[in-house]
Amino acid sequence: MIGVLTAASVSMVFTLFLTPVFAKAFRRLKLGQFYRADTPTTHIVKRGTPSMGGIIFILAAVIGYFVGHWVGGDPISGSALLVIGMMGGLAAVGFLDDFLKVSRQNSLGLPGVWKIVGAVIVSIIFGVLSLTYRDSFGHTPASTALSFVRELPIDPRVAFGATVGGIIFVIWVILITTSVSNAVNLTDGLDGLAAGSSIFAIGSYVIICFWQAQQSCYSLTTPAENLFKCYTVSRPLDLAVIAASIVGALIGFLWWNTSPAQITMGDTGSFGLGGALAALAILSRTELLLVLIGGLFLVITGQVIIQRIYFKSTRGKRIWRASPLHHHFEMKGWAEVTIVVRFWIISGLFVAAGVGTFYLEWLYRIK
Known about the structure:
By secondary structure, this protein is mainly alpha-helical. Helices cover 68% and strands 0% of the residues. The chain has one domain (2-366). It contains 13 helices and no strands. Helix 6 packs across helix 11 (295-313). The protein is globular and about 55 Å long.
């Protein structure tokens, strides 16, 4: 618990006090935000706002994690390093996109296909390592079995063998990672929207993973009669530490990212957060629970997909005034702060439903 609190505190203090310093440096380097021509006109005044703020809170999260371990005296785990690797790898893809926008002085960054290629490469590395690395108990951080709030009796490795099952698992990781990272990226359109929503989503894994640590099947104090309700997650407490560190970093960053934002996270931040969220879901064996925990991201992505399909099939007609969904409400005249706060509320309700579902499943098992 000391490690969790320390990691969150250190990362929050880092971003809270150093974000203005980074923002000033980014402005001097002319690392400003660009917007497309079809973006709502209210965003024109934001042109030139320092971007790539994801660098700050990702750096803070990593520092907070290691300081938390140093204070708590706990060993560093491969599971948390995998989360950091996924977050950093996806952030690198986003950074390249941001850098191209700045260097070309327009909003056209890395082509979409290359973003997907980058996410696929990072996902493959993550998937392979999560199935080959073993912790002190001899267990791998990930499982090839499909999971909801815990592993389900659907395991391609059992059905098709280790090799084919492993390949199917890696494909599943690619699907989750590319979907979540792009969903968070689509949500990053208003000041503080993606950061606040990610605090709720990633914060849920502080609760989930801490609970899993208290009910771990690998604990020496777990009696045999409790094996039906315990969790087989590898090093869940360390997953809670890295999740808390990310949340703390986002809280400090959000202080400067709310409207009017003094800095934006850019694709560096949104892709990095998507990677962290996907990794936490996979390693905590709660992949399908992301439908609830990341409910706001799912709604926004679904709206974009429906709008695009309808636009193409009707040759130019639209269901909503704009997409992603938050821009639709901007076009209707809603204030930016109003949209952001209401979307935060929606995100919080989705997360509450997800955490509640997780806990209710445990209550059902003990009865």
